[in-house]
């Protein structure tokens, strides 16, 4: 996937040392940490200054800036000075992680004992006093190799935070009445550092018309034909679709303003087809493959959710309806693919055709059946052409949604599962999903917490990273699918 539409994290490490402990202990342990990161191909910039007092903060910050570091690992090589450590965290503008050194050997617990296990408690207390949001892993104390693995997991978290702070969401059209779930206050987006630019459907039509005759249109149409290959069922449509894609990309480049990255949430039906004379889904799928999600039906929080999972997975994301149950005959014929799952663990994720071609088996350019019933009944498909359809590729998947309530409180869910190698025997971009205990998750999270029907899908397992990211962003309401035997708060224990 093209990653130009997200931040590039550059991590640096600052070791800290309390003045009543040997500074050499922090220096030696930091060297081991750097070596462990190097062995794992984790780029980690060594900030030479070891912070013992406030006088060390300015030199450390200067070295951080000169090295271009935008995400920081604070490393307690020994107990550490909680005041200077947290002051440094408060003055550093980027995302910060705090970890601490474990003791290496029972043979060196006199001059070689660092007490960072204890220092982490004081550091945490001071971070709370200063109200500093930092990333502290589930178990933040370890040997060099263990901490290097934690730093590797911090990288996508840092990338997402940096990207969100520089993101603008372009919305075209009012959010539809029949999709009230797509309506949500935008104030919490500003709290995250995300900008929003809302435009009308007429503006979108103008963007499309302005791209007519652009020399880039032919090149994009040729690229589309190459991407589709045998699935190019409507070659006469490609120039229109390419014109739309060129228009959106030009609009994005010209309207970023102070932001660096962008996503779209666009009105896509029913009036769209009458004026543009195509369905925009295939273009949406191509932009998703370039790290620029385009959410359907002006779903602003859907676009944001797609973008977040693109940042943490560095793979294209998609937005799907959590759509329909799996018929019993498909479940019974799933064979080994459905092994270990109950029928209520399965559902079909569907959308018209907005999923990137690299995530679809035998993708094909088709017409949108539901829109065709509505707009062109009894006629050959014309204005309803433009979906990219096919079965979603089997493999790991994570369902995710970040959403605002009506009273501007952010909440989210994440659930790991898989897309099964099972033919859904239906239309659109569609796949059979299996999520452990999905039936209970559906009732006691999706329904109980009033989440909308759209869910972002990552084609990877990224639940752990998403959970830590949302904690760092201050999203307190985080819901996950609970294993069998562990009740949700709203679950009736007598019904089990």
In a nutshell, what does this entry contain?
By secondary structure, the chain is of the alpha/beta class. The protein folds into 2 domains: 11-164, Rossmann fold (3-Layer(aba) Sandwich); 167-495, no CATH class.
Average of pLDDT: 96
State the strand order across the main sheet.
10-11-16-15-14-17
Low-confidence stretches: none
Query: Could you give the distance between the termini?
Result: 44 Å
> Helix fraction?
25-40%
- State which percent range the strand residues make up: 15-25%
Number of contiguous helices: 16
Overall SS class? alpha/beta
Tell the overall outline: globular
Mind telling me the C-alpha Rg? 25 Å
* Largest sheet: number of strands, sense, barrel closure: 6 strands, antiparallel, barrel
Count of separate structural domains:
2
Number of strands: 18
Describe the fold and architecture:
This protein has 496 residues and is an alpha/beta fold. The protein folds into two domains: 11-164, 3-Layer(aba) Sandwich (Rossmann fold), CATH 3.40.50; 167-495, no CATH class. 36% of the residues lie in helices and 21% in strands. The protein has 16 helices and 18 strands. Strands 10-11-16-15-14-17 form a six-stranded antiparallel barrel, surrounded by four helices. It is globular. 50% of the residues are buried. The mean pLDDT is 96.
């Amino acid at each position: 996937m093209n990653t130009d539409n997200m931040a590039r994290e550059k991590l640096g490490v600052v070791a800290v040392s309390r003045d009543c402990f040997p500074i050499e202990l922090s220096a030696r342990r930091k060297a081991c940490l750097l070596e462990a990161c190097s062995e794992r191909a984790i780029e980690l910039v060594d900030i030479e200054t070891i912070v013992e007092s406030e006088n060390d903060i300015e030199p450390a910050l200067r070295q951080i800036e000169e090295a271009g570091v935008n995400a920081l690992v604070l490393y307690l090589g020994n107990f550490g000075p909680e005041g200077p450590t947290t002051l440094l965290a408060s003055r550093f503008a980027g995302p910060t992680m705090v970890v601490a050194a474990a003791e290496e050997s029972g043979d060196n617990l006199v001059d070689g004992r660092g007490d960072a296990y204890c220092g982490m408690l004081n550091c945490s207390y001071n971070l709370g006093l200063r109200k500093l949001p930092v990333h502290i892993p589930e178990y933040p104390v370890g040997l060099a190799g263990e901490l290097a693995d934690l730093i590797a997991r911090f990288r996508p978290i840092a990338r997402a935070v940096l990207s969100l702070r520089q993101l603008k969401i372009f919305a075209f059209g009012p959010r539809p009445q029949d999709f009230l779930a797509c309506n949500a206050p935008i104030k919490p987006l500003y709290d995250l550092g995300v900008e929003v630019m809302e435009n009308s459907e007429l503006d979108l039509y103008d963007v499309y018309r302005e791209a007519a005759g652009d020399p880039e249109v032919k090149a994009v149409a040729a690229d589309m034909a190459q991407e589709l290959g045998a699935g190019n069922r409507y070659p006469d449509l490609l120039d229109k679709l390419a014109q739309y894609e060129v228009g959106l990309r030009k609009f994005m480049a010209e309207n970023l303003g102070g932001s660096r990255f962008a996503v779209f949430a666009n009105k896509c039906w029913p009036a769209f087809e009458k004026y543009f004379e195509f369905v925009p889904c295939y273009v949406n799928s191509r932009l998703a493959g370039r790290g620029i999600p385009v959410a359907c039906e002006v779903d602003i929080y859907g676009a944001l959710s797609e973008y977040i999972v693109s940042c943490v997975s560095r793979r294209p994301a998609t937005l799907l309806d959590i759509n329909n149950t799996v018929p019993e005959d498909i479940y019974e014929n799933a064979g080994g693919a459905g092994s270990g799952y109950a029928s209520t663990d399965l559902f079909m994720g569907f959308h018209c055709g907005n999923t990137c071609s690299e995530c679809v088996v035998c993708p094909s350019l088709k017409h949108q059946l539901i829109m065709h019933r509505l707009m062109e009944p009894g006629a050959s498909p014309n204005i309803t052409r433009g979906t990219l359809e096919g079965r979603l590729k089997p493999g790991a998947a994570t369902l995710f949604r970040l959403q605002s309530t009506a009273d501007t409180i952010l909440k989210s869910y994440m659930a790991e599962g898989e897309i099964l190698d099972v033919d859904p025997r239906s239309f659109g971009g569609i796949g059979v999903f299996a999520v452990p205990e999905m039936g209970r998750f559906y009732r006691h999270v999706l329904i109980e917490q009033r989440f909308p029907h759209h869910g972002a899908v990552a084609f990877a397992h990224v639940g752990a990273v998403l959970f830590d990211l949302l904690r760092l962003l201050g999203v307190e309401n985080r819901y996950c699918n609970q294993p069998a035997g562990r009740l949700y708060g709203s679950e009736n224990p007598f019904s089990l």
